[in-house]
Specification:
The protein has helices at 40-45, 51-65, 84-90, 154-221, 226-239, 241-246, 249-264, 278-288, 305-323, 330-340, 346-367, 377-381, 385-388, 396-406, 416-421, 430-440, 442-450, 462-468, 476-486, 488-499, 505-518, 521-524, 527-546, 556-589, 600-610, 656-663; strands spanning 110-112, 119-121, 615-623, 626-631, 634-639, 642-646, 651-654. By secondary structure, it is mainly alpha-helical.
Length: 664
């Protein structure tokens, strides 16, 4: 059959190697009664544990659970006791009611079918005794003594539990009432303390009121002076500030001081003694003024005591003084109001200025005649500017009208007109001043320049001096327009005529420099004036270059060239200085958030942005190694802080202002 000794059975020798061994049972019991019957060979070949052994172990464990442990007797019941303090700390018994009334579930009929016979119960509590009834003994079994589980009386247990719960509730309610009474005692003690404090405060207030009443009766009973009354009310305000505000003692003070102050100021003349009463009224201001906002108009019902005192006592005296005052005698009235202004409410000062002072000034301006009055109007009207300010605006049109009428026959040789008009330059608005000058002064000056005769051999400069004296009064643009229209054409024409008749270039040079010295630096800095003098230089250069006029003096060409170079260099240096000063002033002011230019190129860039001019480098374009730029439509380059502009044949240095003018 293919069996090989020492190897297992089967095709692949997977079977047992040794034959099945037999094991002798110890007794005559059933299989498994004496434990496992597997041999050693079976355990080696089949190591799986038999399920019967596991069931045997589980059965033995369950069986041991029902056995009473040795030494375990009947356990005694444990009782817990609670004191009243523990019961109060625990609080009400949760889930228990004060009484146990019968409910519907307590009266339900229950049929028990779990036993051998059908049993009927009339409540669920009766079912607790179902298992306490002993079972009937089995037939044939010996009778055994049976002991019940214990004594069961549910009604008694319920009543006892109810008594316990009621007792606990009474204890808790008593504890709550006791705590409430203690809280009431604490509250009453606090209230008693507060009442004692209130009583003490009322006693102190009563004592303070008695002291206040004593001081007030002293003011009313005795004939006190103004200073004595002030000291009394200062004491009231300092020591009894709360009562002073609450009781409105300021009104009482006003009533007390009213007759005293009126009697003290009865013979007072504000224009002769402007400081009389200043200290006394200032003292009463601290006593009476409540700090309310100034009124727009007098209202006695809601007026501050201090305001009422001034309105009823001080203002009538001032009103009578203003009615007797002469507006041209401006000093005493202005000094008086300036002295009293810090003590006056705003609305009272405005009332005096608008209803008393301004009408008097308006009538005086209507009566003023600039041709006959020897006192200038500004001498008695301008001192009111700090007090009246914009309220004087209605007076300016009639003043300008009267001044214009007075200037109809005026000649520039009369310097009194400038003295009369100069104080009004900063008073009139810029537009009104410019219109007045253009209408009344500029035509006279233009006529004066038109009458000026340019004569190099016998020159009368007075008409030009009369015009230039108005430089500070007229705007530079207006004055430059006058010179451009009425002076420079005649001047250049005379220069051309002189150059065509064998001139002496040294005299021409002195003549040119003399005329230029007449003008101020501000006028020479104007582009139009500068262009006119440069035009004169160009005429002289063309004359010496072309030989016009016949005989040419030796060295004349060099002298004129030197003069041209010198004058243009002066102009350029002056403009550069002005630009440098402007840049420094901008840097010091720190206008805006823009950075201060650090070099001349940055300054040109800032000026270009300010005037909306395109300033940018030309790519790949240079002159003598210097980068070329476009400034608007002009090509420039910068060398050592100097701007050079491309001319017809060469590069010409120029100032930044001239560059901007050319670009525009």
């Amino acid at each position: 059959m293919g069996y090989v000794p020492g190897r297992g059975l089967g095709k692949n020798a997977q079977g047992i190697v040794t034959p099945i061994e037999a094991k002798v049972r110890k007794g005559k019991g059933a299989v498994g009664a004496y434990g496992t019957e597997r041999t050693q060979q079976s355990l080696q070949d089949f190591p799986v544990v038999d399920s019967e052994e596991e069931e045997e172990k589980e059965f033995q464990q369950e069986l041991g659970q029902w056995r009473r442990e040795p030494g375990a007797g009947k356990k005694k019941p444990k009782y817990s006791y609670r004191t009243v303090e523990e019961l109060k700390a625990r609080g009400p018994v949760a889930g228990r009611s004060m009484a146990a009334p019968p409910t519907e579930l307590a009266q339900v009929k229950v049929i028990d079918m779990t036993g051998r016979e059908q049993k009927v119960y009339y409540s669920y509590s009766q079912m607790r005794q179902k298992h306490s009834v002993p079972e009937e003994p089995v037939l044939g079994a010996p009778p055994r003594e049976h002991r019940g589980p214990g004594f069961a009386l549910p009604e008694l247990e319920h009543n006892l539990q109810l008594l316990i719960d009621l007792t606990e509730q009474e204890i808790l309610q008593s504890a709550r009432r006791l705590q409430h009474e203690r809280d009431v005692v604490v509250s009453l003690s606090h209230e008693s303390t507060a009442l004692q404090d209130t009583l003490s405060e009322e006693q102190r207030s009563l004592s303070r009121l008695e002291h206040i009443l004593e001081l007030v009766e002293r003011c009313e009973g005795e004939a006190l002076s103004l200073d004595d009354c002030a000291r009394v009310f200062e004491t009231l305000q300092a020591d009894f500030h709360t009562e002073y505000k609450a009781l409105g003692l300021g009104d009482l003070a006003a009533a007390v001081v009213h007759p005293l102050l009126k009697a003290w100021l009865c013979d007072w003349d504000p224009l002769k003694d402007s400081v009389r009463g200043l200290e006394e009224v200032g003292r009463w201001r601290a006593v009476l003024e409540t700090g309310q906002l100034p009124h727009s108009q007098p209202d006695s019902s809601a007026m501050d005591p201090y305001h009422r005192l001034l309105w009823e006592v001080w203002v009538p005296l001032v009103r009578s003084a203003v009615l007797q005052w002469q507006p041209r005698n401006v000093g005493p009235m202005v000094d008086f109001l300036e002295s009293w202004a810090p003590l006056l409410p705003v609305w009272i000062l405005d009332n005096i200025l608008e209803t008393l002072i301004f009408p008097r000034l308006q009538r005086e301006v209507e009566n003023w005649n600039p041709l006959t009055d020897t006192v200038p109007i500004h001498s008695w009207l301008h001192p009111w500017l700090p007090l009246l300010q914009g309220r004087l605006e209605p007076l300016y049109p009639p003043i300008r009208s009267k001044l214009a009428s007075a200037l109809q026959r005026w000649h520039p040789s009369d310097g009194s007109a400038r003295l009369i008009l100069q104080p009004w330059r900063d008073v009139f608005s810029p537009g009104a001043w410019e219109a007045f000058m253009v209408k009344n002064i500029v035509p006279k000056l233009a006529l004066c320049l038109s009458e000026l005769v340019i004569n190099p051999h016998q020159q009368h400069m007075d008409p030009l001096y009369w015009v230039l004296d108005w430089e500070g009064m007229l705007s530079l643009s207006c004055l430059v327009g006058l010179l451009d229209k009425n002076f420079f054409p005649k001047w250049l024409q005379v220069l051309c005529s002189w150059l065509s008749n064998s001139p002496n270039y040294e005299e021409i040079t002195r003549w040119y420099l003399g005329w230029k010295a007449v003008f101020s630096d501000a006028l020479l800095a104007q582009p139009l004036v500068k262009d006119k003098f440069n035009e004169a230089l160009d005429i002289m250069n063309r004359a010496v270059s072309s030989g016009i006029g016949g005989y040419l003096q030796p060295g004349a060409r060099e002298n004129i060239a030197y003069l041209t170079h010198t004058e243009r260099r002066k102009d350029f240096q002056y403009e550069a200085l002005q630009e440098r000063r402007e840049a420094e002033s901008v840097a010091q002011r720190g206008i805006g958030a823009t950075a201060v230019p650090t070099n001349f190129k940055d300054l040109i860039q800032a000026k270009a942005e300010e005037h909306n001019i395109v300033f940018m480098p030309l790519v790949g374009k240079r002159h003598e190694g210097k980068q070329l730029y476009t400034f608007g439509r002009i090509v420039i380059y910068i060398d050592r802080g100097v701007v050079f502009v491309q001319g017809e044949k060469t590069w010409v240095p120029t100032s930044l202002q001239s560059l901007i003018d050319m670009a525009k």
